[in-house]
Structure formats: C-alpha cells, structure tokens
Amino acid sequence: MNLFFKKSFKRISLVIFLAILPFKAFAIPQYSLLTGNKCLNCHVNNQGGGIRNELGWYTEQGNGFIGLDKVGLGSITELESNAYFDGLLTLGFDVRVQSARSHKSPDAERKLFPMQMAVYAAVKATDWATFEGSYNAGPVRYPGQQSYSASVLLQPDFSYPQLRAGFFQPSIGIRYDDHTMLVRQIAGGSGKSLIAPNYAELGAEITYDAIKWATFSFGAFSARSLAENTAQSESGEQISLIDDKNNPSLLGRIIFWPRLFENSINTYIGASVLNNGDFSLTNIFGGIGLTDNISVMGEYATSNKKDLQKTNNASVELSYQITSPLLAYIRAERGTTTVTATDEDVETYSDQYVIGAQIFPLPFIEFRPEYRILDNEIFKSSRYAVQLHVYY
C-alpha cells in the first residue's frame, strides 16, 4: 500500500468513527442513496444538477420543519409543479449566499458573499425534444468555469438512448452541489480547480438509462474550457493541460445501481474516463445507503498530464438523515499533486475534514452550517461557515 493510501486510510477511518456519534447532505449522490432514485427521477438532465423536473420540485414542496402555509406562502403549496402551460415550460432557480473567513490568513475578516445566482428553464418542444438552459449571475472564480449552459435533449422514447447536444458539463464522475469537493481540485495551497464549478463544454453525449440498474454514457466535447486549466513546466511556466484545444475530449461513464433486500438498501458503483491527447482523468466512485436513514459514499479521482503533473484525490462522506428536514454529514478528503516536469518530483498535498448539517426550516430554503479543517503545505486552519440556499 503506497503512502497516499496509507495516509488516506488512517484519516478516513478516524472520521468515520467520529461520525458514528450522534451527530446527510442533500446533494445529488446522497439523495440517490437515501431514496433509491436515479438523478433523472428528479432532474431534467440525467447527470443531476440544474433544473428540477416536476417530481423533484414536488418532493421539495413538503420538505421543511414549517409548512409554507404557516408563513403566508400557502399559494405555493397549492401549485402542482414548477411546469407551466400544460408542461411546455419548466422554471427553476438556485441562490446561495455564504458567510465565511479565508483559510489562508489567521487575520482574515469574515465576509458575506454570493456563491450562486442561477436561473433555469426547460421547454418541451415535442414529446421527444426538450431544450434546457441555465444562466448563473454569480461570480466566476475558476479557470474553466462558465456562466451559462444550454442543450437539447433528444429521445424518441425512454426505451431508446438519449442524445444531448450543446454547451454543458460532461458526465465526469459524480456531480455534487458542493463546489469545494477535493476530488475536483488540484491538491495543495494554490487552491486551483481541475474541474471547475459550472464547468461546461461544447459537445454531445449519448446516455442509455432504460435499464433500471445501469446507466451508460459516451460523449465527445471541445476542450476550450478545460484548456484554461494549467500545470507547471520544468521552467516553472504554467502551461495548458490541453496541447490542442481544438482536439476533442472523449468521455465514457458507466454506473450500476443495485437495490437490495426489498429495496431497503440502495447502492451505486461506477467509473468515468475523460481523455484528450496526453491528458487523462479517471474517476471511480461508489456508495451504499439505507433508505431514509444513513449513507456512505466515496470517490477516487486521478489525473495525468504526461511529463508534467499527476493528481490523486480521494473523498469519503457519511450522511445521517435525522429527520426529513434535518440531515447531518461528515467528510474526509485527501489529495496529492505531483509535479513530474522537474528533475525530482515535487509533491504538494491537501487534507480536508468537514462536519456539517443541512437544515430545511421551510420548503425550498436550506440553511447549511459547516466546520472545516484544512491542512496543506502552506497553511493549516479551521473555520466555520454558514450558507443560505434558496431554490425552486
């Protein structure tokens, strides 16, 4: 067992032990493990994220400690869905605001700042063609991050594969609603992303989801957004991960969704591979959950830019659904980045531990307090943060 996995195993084992104390995150993969649903059951696109479909909206309508009718918003409770004009138009949004302090300085001031201000729309032009898109007016902080996405979903019948074409995020690994996940970053004190929040590329993807227990995806994409990410050369210069941004990236992903013991235990296991020239990114992921109770999920992501940079990141999260509007979670992550362009390999690292909760005081309103511990070669710090998420 190499040093990376020895360190990861020790840290992850400790966090899982602590999480057993009475102490879920309501993001896409945890929701699948706690309910047994695929992402497409609640979202317009089958990789999750973005606009919610009628079932996803309706499920959230009753998820809160206090009903909307108790605060003068009973008219929303009377709505049947977020679709209008007999299902022709579906609307949605996500607004996130966070209060936090930077980890990089012990004297950093607490700031209140927007994280996401996204609006979504989907138009069902025919029974087999849906146009969807989003626009995020929030800040663009990372290379490869985009402020919009737009695509067309073509599928004659659910028993056939779906073709999605346009400008959207390829189905890389598991899509989370937490933009700080280490499996999508370059470990170390630089704070650089590998797959940015709201990353999108021009391309097309074919997904077959008609089998209840499996999902298969294959796609080809431009690399213009991914090319904004860089690695360090032997001379210290930052150069693009992609040699030729006009060269297409090829993607394949497969997920199995077994449900066991009369559907009381929900699982998924899968992998994705993205390749462009001498750059590759491989994600392996899996999880297991007891319906409406507890879940554990993990992901390992490794990337390689030949003769320049290698990354290895791992994440494990345990989630516990105390009650439907109250979910607690704890996560341990370990990542290493190795610069291979120099005469001697130079390694940086990141350890990240997160304890938090997702509290839904009202339907469509989430309050998320977190306590984070970060450790890398530049600094070590601990901070609490509070996020307010309003969605529809």
Question: How would you briefly describe this protein structure?
Answer:
The chain is mostly beta strands and 392 residues long. The protein has four helices and 20 strands.
Keywords:
392 residues, mainly beta, two-stranded antiparallel ribbon, 4 helices, 48% strand, disordered N terminus
What is the strand arrangement across the widest sheet? 2-3-4-5-6-7-8-11-13-14-15-16-17-18-19-20
Low-confidence segments: 1-27
Nearest-angstrom radius of gyration?
21 Å
Count of runs of 4 or more consecutive helical residues: 4
DSSP summary, beta strand count: 20
Average the pLDDT over all residues and give the rounded result. 88
Shape: globular
Largest sheet, if any?
A: 16 strands, antiparallel, barrel
Structural class: mainly beta
Span between N and C termini? 46 Å
Order of helices and strands: HHHHEEEEEEEEEEEEEEEEEEEE
Strand portion: over 45%
> What helical percentage do the residues reach?
under 10%
If you had to describe this structure to a student in words, what would you say it looks like?
- There is one protein chain.
- The chain is mainly beta.
- Helix content is 9%, strand content 48%.
- The protein is built from 4 helices and 20 strands.
- It has helices at 3-19, 28-35, 54-61, 74-77, and strands at 83-84, 89-100, 111-126, 129-136, 148-154, 162-168, 201-208, 214-221, 230-232, 238-240, 249-256, 259-260, 265-276, 279-290, 294-305, 309-323, 326-339, 346-362, 365-376, 380-391.
- A 16-stranded antiparallel beta barrel has the order 2-3-4-5-6-7-8-11-13-14-15-16-17-18-19-20. A two-stranded antiparallel ribbon has the order 9-10.
- Strand 3 (111-126) and strand 4 form a beta hairpin.
- The longest helix is centred in the N-terminal third of the chain and has 17 residues, at 3-19.
- The radius of gyration is 21 Å and the shape is globular.
- The N and C termini lie far apart (46 Å).
- Mean pLDDT is 88; it is low at 1-27.
